[in-house]
User: Fold this.
Amino acid sequence: MIFDPISLTENVTPAAVESKLLSRDHAVALAMALHLNEFALVRQVLEETPFASIAHVVRAINSAHLEWLMQMLAKIMDTSPHVEFYLEWCLEILKMHGMHMEKHRTSFMRAFRALHKIVQTRHDDVKAICNQNRYTLDFISSQARIKKNQQERDIVGNMAVS
Assistant:
């Protein structure tokens, strides 16, 4: 957890974060929310950031807040149905700040492990759903073929009788 009282001013408040979100200044809103160190506020900023703006917002993240943000992403992804959205956040963080994280690998290991664990869990869940859907589609397809073959036999049988 990072609490940076030096960066806090009277202007950095939850209301100011809300104001920045309303004015669509997501990068500043995230920076303020990270300075306040409030999980619910950071989650709100992340979720209200448009998908197309994620890369821009990630560029503005201070390297001192990266580890905590990654921990929060792992925690959010554990319960959120928006897997692709949060994976995009993770991908952009790795693209923009990967060199810094590589240089300071030991300080990010906890966050990397947390993200890896949740991404692997979500992968396994999606894989199971996809496999089940594939088997269901195979069953439906085979039933359609059986019904089509039965109808063709019925037509041929009716023509032979006539």
About this structure: Confidence is low (pLDDT under 50) at residues 1-6.
